[in-house]
Structure formats: C-alpha cells, structure tokens
Amino acid sequence: MTLVNVGLANTRTRVRALTTKASRHVRTAPYLRKWLILGCLVGVIAGLGAVAFYQTLTLATHLFLTDLAHYQVPTSAAEGFLKGDSGFQRPWLIPIIVGCGGLLSGLLVMALAPEAEGHGTDAAIDAVHRNPRGVRLLTVAVKIVASAITIGSGGSGGREGPTAQISAGFGSYLSRALDLSPSDGRIAVAAGIGSGIGSIFGAPLGGALLSAEILYRDDIEVEAIIPSMIASIIGYAVSSAFMGFQPLFGFAAPGFQFDPAQLGWFALIGVIGGFMGLGYSTSFYGLVKVFQRIPIPRFVRPAVGGVLVGSLAIALPGVLGTGYGWVQKSLGQSLLGLPLWVVLALPFAKILATSLSIGSGGSGGIFGPGMVIGAFTGAAVWRLLEPIAPGVPHGPAPFVIVGMMATFGSIARAPLAVMLMVAEMTGSLTALAPAMIAVGLGTLIVRHFDATIYTSQLKSRADSPAHRLQRSMPLLGSLAVTHFMAPPRVVLSDETPVAEALSRMDDASPARPSSTSVTSSSESRGAGCSPTARPTTAWRASVGSRTRRRQPRHPATISMLRWNHCCWRGLTGFPRHDRHDLAARQRVGALSRRHDAARRRSGGDPGARRGRGRRRPAA
Prior knowledge:
Layout: H1 2-28, H2 31-68, H3 93-112, H4 120-130, H5 137-152, H6 160-177, H7 182-201, H8 204-213, H9 225-243, H10 263-293, H11 301-315, H12 324-330, H13 340-357, H14 367-385, H15 397-411, H16 415-426, H17 432-449, H18 465-472, H19 474-477, E1 485-486, E2 490-491, H20 498-508, E3 518-519, E4 530-531, H21 533-550, H22 563-569, E5 574-577, E6 587-591, H23 593-601, H24 606-611
Parallel strand pairs: 2-3
Antiparallel strand pairs: 1-4, 5-6
Helix pairs in contact: 2-5, 2-6, 2-7, 2-9, 3-5, 3-11, 4-6, 4-7, 5-6, 6-7, 7-8, 7-9, 8-9, 8-16, 10-13, 10-14, 10-15, 10-17, 11-13, 12-14, 13-14, 14-15, 15-16, 15-17, 16-17
C-alpha cells in the first residue's frame, strides 16, 4: 500500500511539473503560437464533445421514444432524413415518458450539480463575464447526461446548450491548469462556446462569429474572433469526421435566385419574426417565474413540465425533442401535406413546450427550439401567401430559411452569426441577400424593447467587469506596474546602527534627496520594491503635516499613517525616523506590516492604539 501511495505521489509530482512547464510555455508564447495551441485544444474537445453528446442523445431517444413509446421521431437530412410516424400507437404513454424523463433529469441535476439546471449557453456567457475559471468539470458531465435524458425522452430542447458548456468548461479548465491571464481565460471560454455550437450544427464560420457576438446585446468581443475561428474549424473537422460533412438540413434551396420584387415579403417575415422572438423570450422567462413560485421540490418541477409537454404532443407531435426533422419537412413540398392549422399553431406550441421543458428546470438548449420556431414562422407566411400573393417563391425553403434567421437572430442579439449559421446549416448562401432586410428589421424591433433570450448578456463592453477598468482608465490599463517601480537603493536591517544607516543613505542618495527610498525587512532583505521619485515626493507632501503634528506627542512612534492609505500610495512600509532628531524628520528606514503588528502586540506603541482610526483635519 505504501508503494502505491508513493507511486501516486510521484505521478502527481510529474504531472504538476509538466503542467507548470506547459503553463510557462503558453503564457510566454507569442500571440499566434499561443492561440494555435489553445485553439486546437479547445477545438478538439469541442468536436469530441459534440460527437459524445450526439451519440448519448441518440441512445436516449431510441430508448425512451422508439422502444418504450413505439414512436419514430423524424430526423434531418444529415441524420438520415427519416420521415417519422404520423401518430402514436400509445398516446397515453407519451406524457408519462416525458414526465419520467424530466424527473430523472431533475434528480440528477439537483443531487450533483444544481448549476446545470436550465439552458447551458446562458451559464457559459455568465462564466465569460464573471468567472472564466469557475466552470466545474462535474457540471459539464452532469449537463451531458441530464440534457440527453430531457430531450431524448421528448422534452423540447436544443443540442447547442450542452455542447457549448462542454467546450466552455474545457476552456475554463485550461484557464485553471495553465494559469492563463484573466483576458486569455475569457477568450478561451468564449472560443469554447462558439466552437461547441459550430461543431454540433456543422457551422464553423457562424460559430466563430457567435462566440464574439453572443456575449453582448449591442457590442462584440473583437479579441475572441481569431481564437474562435481556430477552435471552430478544428472542432468542425473533428465532429464531421465522425458524423459527416453534409449540412444539417442538406442543400435546402439549391435553385433559389433573389428577385427584388420579393423584398417586401421578406421584410414582412422580418417584422413577424421579430415579434415572435419577443414572444419566445417573454413566455420562456414568464414560465420560469411561475415554476419558481410553485411550492414543490425543485427536482419535481421538470416532471410537471414534462407531463404538460407530453399532453401537448398528443395533438402536435412536432413539439417533442429537438424538432429538426419537422424543420426538414417544412423546407420541401412535404409542408403541403401538413394541415394549415398545424403549420400556424406549431410555432406557438414550440414556444410553450420549450418554456415548460427548460423553464421548469429541465436541462437543454434554447437555440435549437428557436430555429424550429423561426422555420415554421416562415412556413406559415408562405402557406398563407403562396395561393394569393404575387412574387412568392414556388417552394417554401427561402421563407423558412429567412424565418429562422430573423426570429432567433433578433432575439439572441446575434444577427450576423445566426445568419451565417443558418446559411451553413441549409447550404444556401444565396438566401443571405433577402435575409439582410428581414434580420435587420427583426433586430430593430427586439432592440426597441431591449429584450434578449440570454439574460447573461451585457449591454456592451463598457458594462463588462473585465473591460470596465481598462475603458475607464485606458492609459493606466495599458501600462505595466514595473514602469513605475524601482529596486530600493539602500537595504537596512533592524540591527543597523543609526550612524551607519545615515552614512549609507548619504552615499546612496542622488542629487535629489527626496527620491531616496529605503526598505527594511528582516524577513525579505529587500525583496520588495519602492516607488520612484515622483510617488515618493507626493507621499511626503501628503503626510508631512501629520508627521509634524503627531511626532511631538509620541516621539517613540512612527508617522500615524493608516496601512490602507500607505498601500493605496503604493508603498511597502511606514517611514522610520530618527527619534533623537525629530525636527529634521530624517528617514532611516521603513517599517513593514509584520513589524508594525509585532510592535502593537508587544504594547510598544500605546499612542498608536489610542489614535488608530482617528483622522484630524490638516493644520
């Protein structure tokens, strides 16, 4: 047993040494080399995490819905393009299965990682702003399993939340393990968000831009774009090597050519999509508050939401799971086979189902449901206009694609990133031209109400704790402390006689005596630094009146200057004066915090104890 413990200790020592060496190499590397290393590491984990979660979700869906409920969920083109079943063999079983999935997810989350509750993208955004080192690996593992259970059992949720938290959690781990700077840690977590979402959706360019755009409502994190591009393309290459390189919804509109006469219809989709996004956000967080007020245990709330979603699914099966198979149907002529009332009701039903599944405390994403809501918003407009309006495309795909872009791009406050992602997911870059007017109008509507689906988003970089100090004091934020510090010219010990100290100070003094600074510490022997001429002169001017006033009352004491004032001025200790020549106020050294504490414990400065905390007006 002893040999095993010794072996484990040696292994930990070697790992710690390697980590320290890697940390030193990464932190001192040039910008390009550093982010090639970190971006590749984050991208590989993002790609593998997307594959792992996709396989886990597929297994859970097969177990709960296919085997237990005997219901085949329709799938997208990249997943085999299964049309799915038109109805349920056992409709009474659907609410029970979805409710049981919510209960299992709630128990798992509340027992192991309560922070994994809800949608993971919001938590990752908050980590970028508040604590880029604080994402626990346990939270990531719980998020994978809980989200697979929630969505696989029929809960309405998306795949992007868990995959974003996987890669963001690994970026947070790199920040801790390699001791990255706060700015590099924030960029690593942000790159993890974009690369994870880009990997699971097969949209690397949109994912790279999303990592910079999703952090703010009206701003963009420019520093995160290049690292995110490296991480996104690596993650896409890794995930697609296992899942294929075909776009998620195939090439949905291969023959579409933009006609300026259609511009008014696309503008109409943008306006409707903006209000649908507002309804999505308002309903989601409204039901979150409702569930928080229900006096039942937190782990039971997802079960209640699951039962309600299952009951709704009996009438509208499209609310179950991710809903990507139903988006695939809406892109083609299969849309004409759906009743009109189903097409019109499905966007609102998906909003309600997602709010019940994720808003009750279930685990999953809200990006994917936003795609479904936007797709059927565009599909509903096409079904209503196609028989009567001139200039409407013959197929629904352009309206469906632009509907996805306008609805979720506006409420996510990431219009450019969502436009690119949907174009990559549908293989339809030609739809970008009409989408610009639709997404622009939708974003203006949402921005007028200052709404967003991600509550952790800040308004701009000026509101970010990481950028606030640098933006308020840009000059000081660009300068290093070493530019204002210098090593002490004279180092005196506590046993140095005064005469010798004065002699050494005279020998070391430059032409301007006021710039001489001395450090005395029995524990460090000059290990610290002291301010240069300008701060020292300012300090003497600021405390001169106090020194003249207090020294005659307590001739054996140092100047009565509080430690916090001294630290604010940048000094490492109080000045020590010659008690036999107080009129000259000759400095013979400095007293450190440790010396002052020992002096107070020994009772050597009763006057300091009586006067501590009192401040008198200057003479």
